[in-house]
Each structure stands twice: as C-alpha cells, then as structure tokens.
Amino acid sequence: MSKWRALIAADLSKSSLAMLQPNGWTGTTYTPYGDAPKSSLGQVKFNGGRLERVTGHYLLGNGYRAFNPFLQRFNSPDSLSPFEDGGLNAYVFALNDPINRVDPTGHVSGKPLLDRDGVIAIANRTWRGKRLTLLAHGLAGVVKVKKQTLNAEQFYNYLNLQGINLDSYSQIHLVICHSASSKTPSSVPFAQQLADYSQTSIMAYADQPTYVTTYSPNSEKMSLKVLKTDTRYRYRETHNMKNEGSFSYEPRNFEPSTTAHQVRKS
Length: 266
Hints:
- This protein is mainly β.
- It has helices spanning 60-63, 152-161, 190-198, 258-265; strands at 7-10, 16-21, 24-27, 58-59, 65-68, 73-74, 109-110, 112-116, 119-126, 129-139, 142-145, 148-150, 171-176, 201-205, 211-216, 221-226, 240-242, 251-254.
- Helix 2 crosses helix 3 (190-198).
C-alpha cells in the first residue's frame, strides 16, 4: 500500500480549514463556537483541538472538561465557579466571545496588563469584583523584578509606575513562591505587607505553587491555573508548567491592616 501525506491549511487560531491530498482537496467551515459539518479533515479541528468522533466534543484542558460546539457550552461546570475566577456562569465557553477568545484549559483567561521584568499581571472579574493575579519569582519577604529583589513597598511602587494601581482591586492573587512565608519568625510575610499597602485582600502561597499557563497569540489572552492536587502528568505535553519538584499547595489569605494604611497615607 502506498504511503502519502496530506497538507492541512489552518487559520491563526489553528482551526483546520482545508486538506490537500493526492486525489484532491476538501474544506470545511465553522460556526463561531466551532460546530462544523462532518468532513475528512481528521480529528484536529477547531482551535487546534482534538475532536472526539463519537460525541463530536472537544476535551479541553487535557480532558478536564468536554466542550460541546453544537450547544455552545461546556458539559460540566468550571471548578473555579461560581465563587472564584470562573464567574457565575459555570458552563460558559470563552466568556461567550469565541471570536476574540480561546479556552484551551477550560478555565478563565485574560489579557496580561503587564508582561515585563519577570512580572506578569492578569486582571479579571469574580463575584467579589475586580481581581488581579500577579505572577513572579520570589523568596520569603521579597519578589524578584528583573535583576533586583524588591520588598512589598518597593513592589507596590513598581506596579504603580507600570500603571497598575493595586488599591483599585477587590482581591489580589499572588502566584509568587514563598510570598505567604516569613523570612524570620518575627517578620511579616510579603503578602501581609502588600495587603497593608494596597488595603486589599490577598491570596498567596507559603511554598512553591505549581501552575500551568497557556497563551494564544491570536487573541493575546493568557490563562493561568494553580494546581490544587498533583495532576502535573495531565499537562506536561500540552501546557507550559512550572515546578517539577515536590508538589505543594499551601494557600493563605491576608486581610489589610488599617494602621499600616494610615501610616502610608500620612
């Protein structure tokens, strides 16, 4: 039996549009949510996802949730809904904006407000209001920005210079190693100091959080997920993953101190 290869054409979202074979070519079209007529283009189709032939669904997030392009929604709720980043609609796909957004992990995504000096800032909305996620490298008491180590006050001022006002957010999520840990038994954790300066509730981690990220060049959206259980094996081949060492998930919540806020304002 002779062997041959097919040439597949795709758009900027990696959706397969046409396939050229020795005996001719075939093409297809999609609705905004990815529903398409049956074709011989193979299983890699909408947004570069793998189509399940039996169900006609896409298993996004490496099997985390099944997306139904005909119903234009997920079959199961987002684990981050309704009280975290997922929002009130636990079944929505790409925030109901499939033209400009993608949803490769089955979780919420956002366009970075900042991506420089080793710091990434992503803003989105939760039931509590505006939430800012800050991703950076850190040690107990400090965060690494470019080649410098900054304390909480210096980091607060750095973000202000970048046009990010922490005071305007209802909640801040620090995906920064050891940001919830104290450098010494008597010192205040970095997250608590930043909560005092910004007067904003902060969620941080005592150890080294494990997270996965995906980025869509077409929509410039980035999705980030902190793993609560050690499911790293699901993401190694399909996502950018940080922390291949021992797994840890130790979140801590910090509330601002009014006294510190008054000192900063004086």
